[in-house]
Amino acid sequence: MDSNGHSFLDRVIAILKEEASDQVPLINFKHPKELEEILKEDLDISQPVNDNALERSVRRMLQYSVKTNKATFRNQLYGGTDRYGLAGSWIAEAFNTSQYTFEVAPVFTLVEIKIMKHILKLFGIPDGDGIFSPGGSISMLYALVAARYKAFPEVKAKGMRNLPEMIIFTSEDSHYSIRKAAHWLGFGTENVRLIKTNSLGQIEISELDSAIQKELAMGKYPIMVNATAGTTVLGAIDDLDAAADICRKYGIWMHVDACWGGSLILSSKLRDRLKGIERANSISWNPHKMMGVPLQCSAFLLREKGLLHETNAAAAQYLFQQDKFYDVRYDTGDKSIQCGRKIDAFKLWMIWKARSDIGLEHLTDHVMEIAEFCLGAIARKDGFRLVTAPIQCPNVCFWYIPTFMRDKEEDEKWWDTMHKITPKIKELLTMSSSLMVAYSPLHHHKNFFRLAFTFHPVLEEKQVLEMLQSIEECGEKVTLSMLQI
Question: What does the pLDDT look like over 362-371, one tens digit per residue?
Answer without folding.
Answer: 999 999 999 9
